[in-house]
């Protein structure tokens, strides 16, 4: 993969993906909604794009070999279709333009039988599901819809994300990972880049956590 397009590049995990990809020598398009949220720099082209605007997605995808999407609902939302509509918009435009590799960040909450220690599992089912269940449901819809595409997609299911220094990660492919409830965004970004060419992760879901 020579040129990577990152949606959600101006904050959180997306920003870390851009930083690490640039360090690895990849050419990058940073797809952002706000043109003031990121500046052009060596190896990074900034494209103003919204996952609900197909024309802007096409502009962002120009020249890309692979796509990483870290977009998700913002706080205080009560409903979302950013996964099942927004990310699928990216996928459909990729099918038209040619790039085949798509990696999307999802939540372990899409699986009702996620494997956490019992006390975290209880909190996840009673608190997190009540607050973010709408996002879990939309993420599950997205994973189902991605199966209808011809892309080499991977849905990366993650726990609670934190801004922490890298410390390594554990991961699994198409099987539940017994783990704690947290992961640093820098470690998630490193994992996303590590599977760009990993054919074992094509057209399936993975989990990653500390």
What does this structure look like?
This protein is an alpha/beta fold. It has one domain (3-209): Rossmann fold. Helices cover 36% and strands 24% of the residues. Strands 3-2-1-4-5-6-10-8 form an eight-stranded mixed β-sheet, with helices on both faces. It has a two-stranded parallel sheet with strand order 7-9. Helix 1 packs across helix 5. The longest helix has 29 residues, at 118-146. The radius of gyration is 16 Å and the shape is globular. 43% of the residues are buried.
Spatial separation of the terminal alpha carbons: 27 Å
Number of strands: 10
Strand content: 15-25%
User: CATH topology, what is it called?
Assistant: Rossmann fold
The average pLDDT score comes to 92
Structural category is: alpha/beta
CATH architecture: 3-Layer(aba) Sandwich
Question: Which regions contain 5 or more consecutive residues with pLDDT less than 50?
Answer: none
What strand line-up does the widest sheet have?
3-2-1-4-5-6-10-8
Along the chain, the helix and strand elements come as EHEEHEHEHEEEEHE
Considering the protein shown, what is the CATH homologous superfamily?
NAD(P)-binding Rossmann-like Domain
- What is the CATH domain class? Alpha Beta
The largest β sheet comes out as: 8 strands, mixed
> How many whole angstroms does the radius of gyration measure?
16 Å
């Amino acid at each position: 993969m020579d040129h990577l397009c990152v949606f959600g590049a101006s904050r959180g995990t997306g920003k870390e993906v851009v930083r690490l990809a640039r360090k690895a020598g990849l050419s990058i398009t940073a797809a952002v909604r706000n043109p003031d949220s990121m500046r052009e720099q060596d190896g990074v082209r900034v494209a103003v794009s919204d996952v609900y605007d197909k024309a802007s997605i096409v502009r962002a995808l120009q020249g890309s070999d692979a796509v990483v999407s870290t977009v998700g609902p913002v706080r205080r939302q009560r409903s979302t279709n950013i996964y099942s509509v927004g990310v699928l918009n990216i996928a459909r435009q990729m099918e038209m333009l040619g790039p085949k590799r798509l990696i999307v960040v999802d939540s372990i909450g899409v699986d009702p039988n996620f494997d956490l220690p019992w006390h975290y599992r209880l909190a996840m089912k009673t608190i997190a599901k009540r607050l973010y269940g709408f996002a879990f449901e939309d993420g599950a819809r997205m994973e189902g819809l991605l199966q209808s595409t011809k892309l080499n997609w991977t849905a990366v299911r993650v726990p609670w994300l934190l801004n922490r220094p890298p410390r390594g990660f554990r991961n699994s492919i198409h099987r539940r990972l017994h783990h704690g409830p947290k992961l640093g965004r820098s470690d998630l970004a490193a994992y996303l880049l590590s599977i760009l060419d990993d054919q074992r992760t094509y057209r399936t879901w993975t989990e990653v956590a500390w």
